[in-house]
Amino acid sequence: MTKETDIKITEVALRDGSHAISHQYTVEQVTAAAKALDDARVPYIEVAHGDGLGGSSLQYGFSKTDEFKLIEAAVSATDFSKIAVLLLPGIGTIEDLKEAAALGANMARVATHVTEADVSEQHLQTAKELGMETVGFLMMSHMVSAEKLVEQAKLMESYGADTVYVVDSAGAFLPHQVKERIKALREALSVNIGFHGHNNLSLAMGNTLAAIEEGATRIDGSIRCLGAGAGNTQTEVLIGVLDRMEIETGIDLYKIMDVAEDIIAPILQKPQEIDRDSLTLGYAGVYSSFLLHANRAAEKFSVESRDILIELGKREIIGGQEDMIIDVAAELAETNKTSV
Amino acid sequence: MTKETDIKITEVALRDGSHAISHQYTVEQVTAAAKALDDARVPYIEVAHGDGLGGSSLQYGFSKTDEFKLIEAAVSATDFSKIAVLLLPGIGTIEDLKEAAALGANMARVATHVTEADVSEQHLQTAKELGMETVGFLMMSHMVSAEKLVEQAKLMESYGADTVYVVDSAGAFLPHQVKERIKALREALSVNIGFHGHNNLSLAMGNTLAAIEEGATRIDGSIRCLGAGAGNTQTEVLIGVLDRMEIETGIDLYKIMDVAEDIIAPILQKPQEIDRDSLTLGYAGVYSSFLLHANRAAEKFSVESRDILIELGKREIIGGQEDMIIDVAAELAETNKTSV
């Protein structure tokens, strides 16, 4: 178990949480939240569209407010906390990164699919040149073995990532799987190891503790679980749990509880819970963005959306292969016809 | 890890969940839920007031429907599932137990504070004589050491309990603590070991997996987390997780997901989430029934309700000692005055 200090928390409600409120953050909300998080002494606050810089689009959903305005507001509202941005190469650009840095963001988290770390090289190097702290963010980490994960993480380390995150984008990991992966990374890397959990299987907290037990020291949380799918590891609860374990985060427990209750809860359109859809996504281990496509295909072919999603998980379909959803639905319809 | 079959689930939404809806279950709701749970092949369904047989009262909250009518309805609605009742000696009586058995309930769960197993003797023995399957239910198990827990569990075993449950009434356990306790019980007892979790620290699922890893084979869940505090281990999610781990429960995943979405979710007055109050209760490790008293005392003495609850946890105040709440509030007010 980690001693003394040194689990550093990144609060993602103002980025991942943007999914949960259809990217409708206002400058006023971000200012109020960032100020209160700063006062609670949260080390990093991530601010961006849910899909990272440049995410505001027809495909990913338009933001109500230009994300650079939100980043600027968060920078202005904070003294202690550092502002982080997420960037998915292909969605966000080097220019976006430079603009964020110019506004005062000082951590760049460069996210790729777990098998595509090589596309992060230029962005991580640029972030370094801009003087930013750098994070490599391996999304959908549950889709590969520990060995493959180590290989990809080492690429990010070689590009200059100060931290490499195991990202459970679909909320699909089980605690023993997290342990195995964090342990393997801890043995292979010199840089910090991070963990970003989702709660689709009600294991965000359990997995986070498993990660910490094996040596992860950078942890993502979202206040009131505000995030994609069933949301993330609930920050204020995590601070309470770590406090009970005498693991130091530097964050004030009462203040972070109050941010949750008084600032974030009122923003929520509906409380985060694990419903049939988010459970199915976690069980299948697929991106939450597949849900809408699967529901449409299910209706068209008169098959179960759940069957489609689970089959997509088995076939290891990833973002960008959404056209496979129709194929799978058609095949399931054909199988159902044959078996009647 | 447990092989093949043999995690037997008890669904508690129609008992512990009664807390979450102010004991307002109707015969129609219980009939619909029990029928659907039976169809999903849930082995045990617990039906009673949230505080067990006889709980309907000014002190614990009046039930909308006489609980024996609900038990009768559940028995009528089920073929496969067995109906369980909870009984806290001192609240429910031997006569209540006999009436439940006469109506067809065939599992008696006799619950005591973790240090008071001796009061369960007569009730467990009567349940046995009535031909019921018997469970000893050690509430607030987090308040004692593994050694003390073993001592109390052995008492219940000696009274004829077929299963002894570790009950995390306050949602205060951490996974390593659960492991230690289940392991100690597994080594000391011959009967089944059960685990009943609450989600106040977002660890109901993580703790449940920890318990299973150490040999617990009887697990409580509540559909859609419907239970006291932040609710329980979410049954339909647990079935998905265990299925992913190839641990057999005999429960149909799709059907249990559908019970959650189509029958239980519409009954909920508001979704279960971990708010400031439930987090405080789990962090402090005190009964959820203390909350209202603490809030009142906080207002009267102009102190923080959280400070009161945390102090009550430190002093290991238990149900029946509610008069201590005022004392603690007064002391905190005095301390605040002195320190100003």
From TrEMBL, chains A, B:
Which keywords does this chain's UniProt record carry?
Answer: Aromatic hydrocarbons catabolism, Lyase, Manganese, Metal-binding
The answer to whether UniProt assigns keyword Endoplasmic reticulum to this entry is: no
Q: Which residues form the Pyruvate carboxyltransferase domain?
A: 7-257
EC supergroup of this enzyme: lyase
Q: Where is the signal peptide?
A: none
- Residue positions binding substrate: 15-16, 169, 196, 287
Q: Write out the catalysed reaction.
A: (S)-4-hydroxy-2-oxohexanoate = propanal + pyruvate; (S)-4-hydroxy-2-oxopentanoate = acetaldehyde + pyruvate
Q: Where does Mn(2+) bind?
A: 16, 196, 198
Give the Enzyme Commission number.
4.1.3.39
Q: Does the keyword Coiled coil apply?
A: no
Annotated site residue numbers, Transition state stabilizer: 15
InterPro entries xrefs: 2-IPM_HCS-like, 4OH_2_O-val_aldolase, Aldolase_TIM, DmpG_comm, DRE_TIM_HOA, PYR_CT
Enumerate the GO terms in the molecular function aspect: 2-isopropylmalate synthase activity; 4-hydroxy-2-oxovalerate aldolase activity; manganese ion binding
Active site residues per record: 19
GO BP annotation list: L-leucine biosynthetic process
Q: Which PANTHER family match?
A: 2-ISOPROPYLMALATE SYNTHASE 1, CHLOROPLASTIC-RELATED (PTHR10277:SF9), HOMOCITRATE SYNTHASE-RELATED (PTHR10277)
Family according to the record: Belongs to the 4-hydroxy-2-oxovalerate aldolase family.
Q: What is the name of the protein in this document?
A: 4-hydroxy-2-oxovalerate aldolase
**Which organism was this protein described from?**
Salicibibacter halophilus
Q: What is the lineage of its organism?
A: Bacteria, Bacillati, Bacillota, Bacilli, Bacillales
Q: Which gene encodes it?
A: dmpG
